[in-house]
Amino acid sequence: MLHREMLDYVGDISQIGGIKRYQMLEGKAKGVEAVDVDDGQGLRYTILIDRGMDLGKLVYRDCGFTFQAAAGVTAPQYYNERGEEWLQSFGGGFLTTCGLTQAGDPCVFEGQPYGLHGQVSNLPARLERCEADWQGDDYMMEVAGRVCQTRHQGVQMSVRRSIRTALGSGHIQIEDRISNQSSDRSALMLLYHMNFGYPFLSPDTRMYIPARHTEGWDEFSKRHMEQQEEMPVPCARAAHYTYLHELRSDSAGNTGFMLWKERDDKFIGVQVRYNQANLPYLGQWMYPKKRDYIMALEPCNNHIKGTALEEQYGTLRSLEPQEEVTCRLDIRFFSTREKWNELKTELEALTR
C-alpha cells in the first residue's frame, strides 16, 4: 500500500495514480462518459458512466484481463431490447450488469416482451460522486452514481452503485443498493456478467470454483460437464458451454471463486468474493470461438433462462414496494505465488 510519506517524492498525486473523467468522441462510443482509475501499482480500469456504471477494459500488471467484443463501447441510444439484439451493443469489458427485471433468455412475462439480459447495462447513470482523497493513510478513489430503470405505469427500479479502489491496493469494491421505487411488487433479476479474455484467459488459465452442485444449462453442456474446469483452445466452430453452480460458503453465506495462471514461476490472477444471500448461483459461460474467445463468470440470483421460466420454477425473486437489497463484489488481484497461496488458502477455508 502507498502511504502519505510518498508525497515527499512527487509534485502531484497524479504522478503515481488517480482518477480521470472524460467523454468519448468517436464512432458508436461518441458521447459516452467514462472514468479511468489507476491504483499506481498496476491496476487500471475504466468505469463506463453511460453504460450503467459497468467496468470496461481492465489491466493488471500489464496483463489484459477482459474480453472486448467487436462492438466496442456503444452509447445507450444504440440499444435494442428486442430478442437477442442486446448482443449488438454488448462490448464485453470486465463487468456487464444484467437485470433488473430480466436476465437470461428472451421471454414474455405478464404480457410484456423481455429481451436478452435486460436493460440496465444500457442505461446511463447520474453521477453523484467522483472523488479521490486521503482517508487516514489510504488514498481512496471512489465513483458513485444512480441508474434508474423506469416505465410509466410500470417498473420503477433504481441502483445506487459505488466503486472504490485504494491507491496501491490491487482491489476493487463494488456495492449496489437496488430498490423498488414503485407502489407495486416487482420482479428482481440480477446477473453480474464478468468477462475474462486473452491474454489472461487461455487453456493454461486455472480456476477454483468451490461448487457443491453443478448442472449443465442445456443438453450440450450436460453432455460435456468435464469442460467446466478448463478453457478450450480457440476453434472456428465453437459451441457454447454453460453451467450453473451452487457454491459452498461459510455460515454467513460468504463465498467466491479464483482464476489464475502461472508462467515462469510467476502467478497472476484474481479472487472474487460475495455473499449468497442475494446471489445464490454462479453462472459459467465459455465460448471458445476464434475472435470471440471468452469465459464469463456470473454471480446471479436466477437460472439464466429468463423471467418467465424463473416464475415457472417457483424461484422468481421480487422486491416489495420501497424494499431495498444490497449486493457487494470484493475483487482482489494478485501477481505473486505468495499472494496466490494466501488468497486461495483463505477462500478454501471459507468454502470448506
Automatic annotation (TrEMBL):
Source organism of this protein record: Diplocloster modestus
Listed name of the protein: Aldose 1-epimerase family protein
